[in-house]
Give the backbone structure.
Amino acid sequence: MIHNTKCECGHQNPVGTVLCESCGKPQQDEDSAELLEMRYDGVARRSQKQQKNWIDQIWSFLSSVKVAVWLILITLIGASLGTIYPQQNVFVGNIDLAQYYETQYGTLGKIYYMLGLHDTYGSFWFQGLLVLIGASLVVCSLDRVLPLYRALKKQQIRKHLSFIKRQKVSHETRLDLTDGETAEEWTEKFEQVLRKRYYRVHRDGTALLAEKYRFSRWGPYINHIGLIIFLLAVLLRSMTAWEVDYVPIQEGKIAQIPGTKYYLENQEFRVEYYEQDELTPEFREQGRTIEKSFETDAVLYECVDNCDNPSMEPELNKLKEQTIFVNGPLTYQGLSVFEVHFEETPQLLHVQAQLRMKGPDEVIGTLDLDIANPQDVYTVGDYTLRVIGYYPEVSFKEGRFVTLSNDPNAPAFVFLIEGPELPEDGYVHVYMVRPVDQAQFQQDVLNETAGSPFELSVASMEDLVISDYTTYFNVKQERTMPFIWTGATISMIGLILGFYWHHRRIWLRIDNGVLTIGAHTNKNWFGIRQELTNALNKAGVEVDAKTIANEVNGS
Amino acid sequence: MIRKQKWLQLLILCGIVAAGFLAIGGSLFSQEEKPPEKGDAMLDFTLDGLDGQANSLASYKGQPIVLNFWGTFCEPCVREMPLLERFHQEHVDEGLQVIGVNLNEPVVSVRSFVRETDVSFQILLDKDVVRKRYGVLYFPTTFFIDKDGTIQEILIGEMTEPMLLSALNKIGVKGQPGGST
């Protein structure tokens, strides 16, 4: 049997319509006196279709508010799981995560790691939940806003009597007209009263539709658009933003920011400590030195060639130079370099030693030693100094020189010096940069035993370049913040629109001296009752708020 | 009207599926290279040797490879060098390739060490790149790779002769204990 959807007013309604699109007459429950369900003005929604194919089933699932609330709850619980133990992104350096969680937190920690909860917010199920929430937002909104917009766009002025009488605010009374006044004149008078209250009034003889603040109905949908933009920005962020924490760079050196094509140079480091009289008594007692401020002159580079090639020097392009201080990062195109920590790590960078023959004070030449990158051969005057041994942290073990580490904390060189008027095999000469090492390992005795006639030494402290500090940097790149702010702002605008203004409509018709008036709002019924009461009283109809409240359904 | 709606519905659902793939797929299939474990394939790299020539690991595929990460400052590494050198000389004719990857030391240090200790197997100079890719945290670490390029054994710490023999066995090299020098 085909369901007849033509209203008695003559308008053909889509299947599923609750209130006629034209006159508002209820399509079901025609004889009841119950209050009308005014949601979306009673128009048919896609998700309420009776015959559902698979697309419709998915659609109606996603458009359900109940489902949306469940999704949010599940996401909330899932997110809280990520706060139980520290997530994997707080760890610096190479740590065996599986080991760490098990040893630190026991079996629970092991289970935590196995379930993938150490990266809760990056896990596939969490991201999936966010996508579902986004989908629900989109479908919920579209399912409701399109029919609502159509319904509110073409509103009839003269509504069916049952429509007006079954509104939540409704009143029917005999109109007492003062002498000479016609019904139409009274309607016009009432129209003016309403206009003063900022209503937009459409009049058709003795029927009237007054409406104000319709834009507030779009508030929730604008809010949802903002949230969708926010979620999309979050999705984009999870794919494009990155952070590298605790990158140590010694003063005077350039280092690569691990995992990126950026290089950072620490040109100079300065620290200022508090004076004793600037400290409070408690701190003074502790006898510590507290840093007042520290800053690094840094230069940011980008690698343009030979970047992944360990055997070749990368070609660097300078991007920006800036002095970084705490909370004053170097920023470049969404990249931020923060200074987070520093340590005193005195290290020798460069030595300019003078080559002399033992005896005469005459300097043959200067040996320019780059401690970090020593060459194979140096030429000083007429002599060639070939590096046959280099020990960054020299020590003596089992009769030979060894190095304890790769850090130049106690550099020592063994040269083979060849040149004019020297024996063919040349002379072996040991040079230790630090006087303390020279003394400890008896450098001069060694050279004498080897028969070297040379002397290598620095003239003064000016010939040494020592860098004292290492700055630790935190580098991150974030380009999606503008989108996140946009989404949040739009969301806020939507909320304000929806909360501070309320859509109010008043329908009125006079039939044979009987005034029937009804009103509807989406929020703040108290307000519209007051307003309507005042308006009617002003127009000469004595009512009070209680009279017009339609208590048929006892709500 | 209805046909247009259905088309819109389908379009939106497709958009959601696409977003879902991006989000979920992004976290499921992360492209970060993980350090290889036993049973994984070896990671190819190219490093310079002491002679300045570039060498790639892949060029040795088809031969069993012993990949040893070491430094002159690392005492255990230095202690096991003679053992490695001996096995290199004993089995080089069979095709065994012993490679020592030096951990970011200046060339002069490595060169003088090699000269002093008479090491003859291939030494490659790393700049902290390959070490990180292979997830080497402790020194020495030695990877034993078979002819097909699969890592059969990873030994961390100084190797004794029995350990080395057993690991070599796994990549198809039958060694003899206490061989001639």
Q: What stands out?
A: Chain A touches chain B through 46 residues (CB under 8 Å). Residues 158-216+499-548 of chain A form a domain with the TATA-Binding Protein fold (CATH 3.30.310.50).
